[in-house]
Amino acid sequence: MEESLNIPTTLQQLISAEQAYHYRIVPTAQHNGSVTFKTDTEDKVALIQELQIVLGKEVTLVTTSHAIIQKTLASNYRKQERKRNTQLTDSSDLLLNIIHEAKSLGSSDIHFEIFEHARRVRFRIDGKLLERYTIPLQEYPKIINQIKVKAGLDIAEKRLPQDGRIKINTVNEDYDIRVSSLPTLHGEKLVLRLLSKDATNIQLDSLGFINEELKRYKQSIKNEQGIVLISGPTGSGKTTTLYATLKLLNTDDVNILTIEDPIEYTLEGINQVQLKENIGLDFTKSLRTFLRQDPNIIMVGEIRDVDTANMAIRASLTGHLVLSTIHTNSAWGTISRLIDMGVPPFLIASTLKLSVAQRLVRKLCTQCKTTKSVSKDTFPEYIKLSKDFNKHSIPVGCEKCYHTGYAGRKAIYEIIPITRELTEAIKSNHLEIDAYLEKRGIVTLKNNALALVTSGVTSVEEVYPLLLE
User: Fold this and answer.
1) Would you state the pLDDT for residue 91?
2) Which residue from 181, 229, 356, 370 has the least number of CB within 10 angstroms?
């Protein structure tokens, strides 16, 4: 039976990733100030002496194979871009250590959580949460207050949620962090969203559109008026698609205004406004003002209610191109969502030019993925597959992907241009259009997800929820 590669977080953080790889050690137990490590190093006597000096603890070494050490290191210690001290013992440098490590590992969010008997830090990497640290009881309030001070929050207010922002501006780094505090049963939970200001590498052509989808999308955003809506759950890449679109549309002869919460990237030449609901600066009020600012293109971070939807429609009717996001499961589901909000179907029909749905799907690691025969239980029973498709790729795990089996993510889309036929369907509230989509060759999210499975880019388990929709 293969031994577990997972190290409990309390043991994992006894040493940094740099120390683990340098000394070829993984901690397995600690007791009364003594720590036991596994190692594949032959000269244990010299290593014990050095580790006892470096760590200030009694050290016991157990020899194991090179393969086990290599796998365990890769599973538990992610290498960073530059050396950081990651031992969480003092709150003075604790926060910066965590933020820098999360940034280095490509994390989108940092969660600080407190429970009755535990306090932990988790990173969201490639859409999945990974427990990285536990924090001593006496240090947790210190780091929470430290974050709140840096974010401009009231440290005395522990009963109500608060939102703030931290700016990181050094010689090597320039980014913002959105901070959200939430009172929970045992104390405050904080979530830090890392917002990169660098939009240099955001390009529509590299986001994941297939050729026909990209062509349809680019045609639709050439409209001088109307609404383009992008739908999907939180963290599906909607905002990135919007910024890539704005980059393409940002020329010297157009005036672009955005209202966002938060501003995730800064784009030169675009007038960006940060939402501040606590002082009354909401989407609706900003849109009213935008109409007096002689805009060509308006980007609204999210359509959350009927007032914002109606203002976006008003803006599009008066000769502006409006880009926004909305939370729905599919591109056509956006229509139903707007109708449910209270927007009249004839207004939707006359203003909506394009509806897009998107998701982010983890890609299988190309170094270690393998194939497995398709069985009758592999896919939902109503999924139709080619008879030639008899094997699918599955995750395995290796050093390159930290034994997760996945490396990176890819966006998939569902693009529906609103044609005259669809305009009439919306006006008459006839929302069953599956036959129309098939006739027009419009690929749904489900079919795009299935294509990634059959081409070996991702696994069935990664897209299974999409296949059920």
Assistant:
1) 55
2) 370
